[in-house]
Design goal:
The structure is a homodimer. Chain A is α+β, with helices and mostly antiparallel strands. Chain A contains twelve helices and ten strands.
């Protein structure tokens, strides 16, 4: 465990600011790039991948990431790796990989590189709230900077070459981490999510592809990057998420004003009661109640905590974060005790 | 609804006092009696039963019950009747009966008569805690007093004659309302309850025969009154309940000191969180959480409320009490709202 410092660092993208931040926690733009001189990670030898990592690290040090943390993922223990995955800085797949993966992370965690996962390089920029243009602008600027010292695989007819064809073209994925408890309670969520593919969008769980939905938090992103420009993709996702956010806000107000108000109050205040009283708190339950609390806060109800604290707790209450906090491996029951204590403390419970 | 005053009266038997009151809420001795001049209620005409009621009322007015409430159950509306049943002053069966039932209730509700249920007269004395001797003494004194002006059906060889043969003999049932959450959590409860019949005892739910167990509250009583004296029966029940109370206390201490402490704390503090936060609270859930809270209080843990408040809430949070409080019939959902508000208020929640 060498990443203790991260427990105290501010994750810039969890701040409760930016457009529609009561519904949209964060916006993220990531670019997939590969070096033309090496095979894709799935087909390359470890030595070649170590060389890729060295080259990317060297190129990154000549950009705005010069003060960032440079991590060799294969040199980290499992708590450090899982911590990075819990913070969305590397994928769960890279956290489990034995290959020479890498991560470059700026101090506010709003810019980061992931090296030798599915592609040689995944470059990501995050911004709080719904602000994909800002995230895209920062990702592009870093991409331009780093490209000065790296030779990316690119064909004029196909665009950037990537390991998975869904990333071919711009290599870009624009996504928003959204919180849709109102649409969930009102029973509209499945219908809305089913319609996303028609707009070229997909919805995933909290940790991306193949992860489950917890606490009504979803990642909404473009399905593919082929055939459209970066700007078109960003605009399309931003427009769709803005529409979703408006519907969510509308839905929350209607629930709070309608015949179901007593049920909504019951859900929200019970969530507050549970979070401030439990002594054993599983993560899925914490997510579920933090989601309800977040909704209560957005309605201006007198519940403990604030949006920033809840956004942060969604990260800090995860297993590797709790293990890091206690400085040792912990059992599931110990985790549940530590999580309950952390949540009570952050929510100001006695 | 004419019994609103009862919402504010003190139920003497719910006070947190008397031996073992942390485990034994109350002790109760009831005597079954029938007038020799009339058939048992199951076989008598309404006119005969009205005469029985008049005779019992007249006899009771010449005892220490002269300041009691004298109620004709068939003249009460359904809220009043159910209120009496919820306070254990009449049986659920009498509350539903159309016959000329009666109830005589002293202001502290520690002495009462139920008229024309299964027997012409059921005379009951209650005391807080485990104090069956006191209850028996008060029941006997009232029985002697009232017998001066009534002719009870009695045969020297069989004893008092009763509608059901299990009451034949002394006509007495000594019971204790016990709270056994520790034995429940530790998994010993079923075994202990199964062994009660060997000691001539039976366990029932909160409202007596045929009612279900909620929140680990049980009524323990002698199975039959034939062949033993009043004093022997009272001593046998008191001894068995004392043994049960000691085991329960022992079990609570062991749970609080053992490896399961975190689970126990979680249960108790979550119960407190739920009771002080819920906006919709079904009765069974309220019982369940009040039971856990009561256990936490008995362990000296810093949870809201006190034993007296919890004992009282077990009565006041019931449906007819909530209807009485709001002055009108209420739906199940309205009840849940009123119950949640009452519990929050009594537990001093914001």
């Amino acid at each position: 465990m060498i990443l203790q410092g991260m427990l105290r660092s501010t994750m810039g993208w969890t701040l409760p600011e930016g457009p529609y931040h009561e519904v949209v926690l964060a916006s993220r733009v990531r670019l997939a790039r590969n070096l033309s001189a090496a095979p894709f990670p799935g087909r390359a030898q470890p030595a070649a991948l170590r060389k890729v990592r060295d080259q990317v690290f060297a190129a990154a040090r000549r950009t705005c990431l010069k003060d960032a943390a440079y991590l060799q993922v294969d040199a980290l223990d499992s708590v450090d790796r899982r911590l990075l995955a819990e913070r969305h800085l590397i994928s769960p797949a890279l956290a489990q990989s034995r290959g020479p993966g890498g991560a470059v992370i700026d101090p506010r965690e709003c810019l980061n590189l992931m090296i030798n996962e599915e592609d040689h390089l995944r470059l990501a920029a995050l911004a709080p709230g719904l602000d994909l243009r800002r995230a895209a602008h920062e990702a592009d600027a870093l991409d331009d900077d780093i490209a000065r010292n790296l030779d990316f695989a690119f064909r004029p007819d196909w665009g950037y070459l990537t390991a998975c064809p869904t990333n071919l073209g711009t290599g870009m994925r624009a996504s928003a981490l959204v919180h849709l408890p109102g649409l969930g309670l009102a029973g509209f969520i499945n219908k809305l999510l089913e319609n996303l593919p028609r707009a070229g969008l997909i919805a995933r769980g909290l940790y991306g592809e193949g992860t489950k939905v917890m606490g009504d938090f979803f990642q909404i992103s473009n399905a593919t990057g082929l055939g459209r420009t970066d700007a078109e993709l960003v605009a399309a996702v931003e427009k769709a998420v803005e529409e979703l956010a408006r519907r969510e806000q509308d839905c929350r107000q209607k629930l709070a004003a309608g015949a179901q108000r007593a049920r909504l109050e019951d859900t929200v205040y019970r969530a507050a009661g549970c979070l401030t009283s439990a002594r054993l708190l599983p993560f899925a339950e914490a997510c579920h109640h933090l989601s309800a609390l977040r909704m209560g806060l957005s309605l201006g109800w007198p519940v403990p905590g604030d949006l920033g604290t809840i956004n942060e707790l969604m990260i800090l209450a995860q297993p590797a974060h709790l293990a890091m906090r206690s400085g040792k491996a912990v059992t599931a029951e110990e985790q549940a005790v530590l999580r309950a204590a952390l949540v009570r403390e952050r929510l100001g419970a006695k």
